[in-house]
Amino acid sequence: MVPDARALTVQTDALCALARWCAGRGWVPATSGNFSVKDAATERIFISRSGLDKGQITPADLLELDVTGNLLHGDGRPSAETGLHLVIYRDRPKVHAIAHVHTIWNTLLSARCAAAGAVEMEGYELLKALSGVTTHAYRECVPVIANTQDYAALAQELTGVLKQNPAVHGVLLSGHGLYTWGTSVAEARRHLEALEFLFEVEGRRITSEG
Amino acid sequence: MVPDARALTVQTDALCALARWCAGRGWVPATSGNFSVKDAATERIFISRSGLDKGQITPADLLELDVTGNLLHGDGRPSAETGLHLVIYRDRPKVHAIAHVHTIWNTLLSARCAAAGAVEMEGYELLKALSGVTTHAYRECVPVIANTQDYAALAQELTGVLKQNPAVHGVLLSGHGLYTWGTSVAEARRHLEALEFLFEVEGRRITSEG
Amino acid sequence: MVPDARALTVQTDALCALARWCAGRGWVPATSGNFSVKDAATERIFISRSGLDKGQITPADLLELDVTGNLLHGDGRPSAETGLHLVIYRDRPKVHAIAHVHTIWNTLLSARCAAAGAVEMEGYELLKALSGVTTHAYRECVPVIANTQDYAALAQELTGVLKQNPAVHGVLLSGHGLYTWGTSVAEARRHLEALEFLFEVEGRRITSEG
Amino acid sequence: MVPDARALTVQTDALCALARWCAGRGWVPATSGNFSVKDAATERIFISRSGLDKGQITPADLLELDVTGNLLHGDGRPSAETGLHLVIYRDRPKVHAIAHVHTIWNTLLSARCAAAGAVEMEGYELLKALSGVTTHAYRECVPVIANTQDYAALAQELTGVLKQNPAVHGVLLSGHGLYTWGTSVAEARRHLEALEFLFEVEGRRITSEG
């Protein structure tokens, strides 16, 4: 099957625009974070290479992988966290874009709520920006997985968390950052903006209450 | 009556410039927020279509409505909150521009002050940026309406709040955001900037005091 | 005496660049704030006109005044606070540029320290950015004047404060904002950046301690 | 030995780009901060001249020094803190770039932790952005040196601190700012972004706990 080159270009362009926008907001400091898109026609995955300043990223900095993570095209090393992207694409078949960012508020909240196992946010209008949510009278429980450098264990843990939480729009790693996703780059971006806005609101609310 | 095409262009251009400026400050995250202008000659309303990233908005993304909300021109769906714009234009005849934004501080303050029914701000020089206010020795009480997904009920509630508070420059929906307005886009923008500045000052003051 | 047209151009250009930079940081919200420069050769004063969005200011938006405040050239109304600029130029003969801004932290601190009559900052390296200060082991006491809409009384109060505090680099109006100055636009900007940085540091320090 | 002109150009360009980026974030207010790079071939040091707004810096604003600090080329005065750069280059032979910034959070934290003698950060994924750190289960102890205007004494103090802390990626001066470095401008920037991110996270965590 021949992929639709133009649609693919648009998606990789949009993905890089999202990554550069995140860099401008300080959400991927010190070459952290990673971003990927899955082509609908070929199921190939395009992911940012490791060690890159995301403020400068262009489609030439993406690596092309198959769904099991084999490198098909591109210069550079896939991020050590590529396996987490593969788990999400495998277990959420409708997902075609993933963003992973390190922000002040997701770092603070994920560390603070690690023992509780989730960051809970309820009653905010902006929850409606999450796909399938139609009212503010909703509680989003973003699971917090304990951070580890054992990526195989992390992939297994993430598999379990996705299975147990079919409705979640993102997962946090404690003291590390957020993974979120969507059926398109636009939806992944909407989820990212909404969750990070809510993390800051909730983080400020909780810390002001001591 | 033929509308003044150039004046109209300037107003829709200014409205879109305001929306893009808000996007740059993070005040309309995740395609939230909406903006409208009412043409003085024709009484037609131009409002941002639903689901749009406001960072990219141009006049082509505005829908043209009559004063009762019928879609006259434009591609896309009016926001579910269009009815609130119509109430404001109906009950504040001098108003020609409306902005609705979701910010960190209006979300925090509106949720915190929902039970009290208003956010009160007093003694700040910047209150003088609000039309008709000539001294800092003034108390602006921004009403807080409980958020709901029942937009007909919300429109009715807003009608009552506008009637009971003839001097207010804006209305908050709890955990949701701010509506503010002006006789022109420039005045709506001035009210928006002033209220959001004061929300942040007041929010920081209150939360630092526990 | 014929003024040096080029030097004057550079100063009014630099003044407008400073005003636009302040607008970008949110320091002159809702058309607040004002900026002026005094030409060394002619002693004429060029000041931003009232009611202007400082994000768009150019030298054409400046009004030319003599040292007693008479309008010589320019379209628009001088700000009500022009008299305060005139007092500073009169009582600080070396001053050739003045900036007045409304920021979150100068509003919070000036309100909080109004009763004490001054914001005191000590021990910070950045104090050395203030003209004449050569060590961090220095205490800058920025006087806080109670805000009022009686500008004649305010001018008189400012006259007294400048006389009693010959070494200060700025004056705060409570719940209103900062006036700071320098022998050139560059020095006024350096004082502005330094004082606002220190206000934020001190504001965060004080409020985190309850 | 003839230096590689192109490689040198790239490094001084990259250094100035870093300085301008810091200016945009408010990390070098009021002409504070300084930046340098050491040419690998000639061991010559290129450092920002004193009193410069870093938002405008270009390679023409760099002074060329030998390793003992003698001025070889360039207009302007070396910063009083040049001696600290020379100590770092002398005692860390692999270092080829140094950044010194004044930020809100490094000022707050360095003052708060001065008595303890170090800012300790542990358990964050972003620690892995520091060269040689391979796990979040790591504690970075950034030494805090008491600030002084006796630069000879400060150079001697820094010499001792570098000797006693062979693994550190930066040093704080209390109430003053951060020095950090790398084998290249890119690595110095990565360390700078990571440390400042962690200072903000840690500063917010500590202050919210009272």
Q: Would you write up a description of this structure?
A:
The structure is a homotetramer of 210-residue chains. Chain A has 210 residues and is an alpha+beta fold. Chain A has a single domain, classed as Class II aldolase/adducin N-terminal domain (L-fuculose-1-phosphate Aldolase, 3-Layer(aba) Sandwich), CATH 3.40.225. Helix content of chain A is 37%, strand content 20%. The first copy, chain A, is built from five helices and nine strands; from the N terminus they run αββββαβαββαββα. In chain A, helix 2 packs parallel to helix 4 (151-164). The longest helix of chain A is centred in the last third of the chain and has 24 residues, at 185-208. The first copy, chain A, starts with a helix and ends with a helix. The relative contact order of chain A is 0.15. The mean pLDDT of chain A is 95. Chains in contact: A-B, A-D, B-C, C-D. At the A-B interface, helix 5 of A face helix 3 of B.
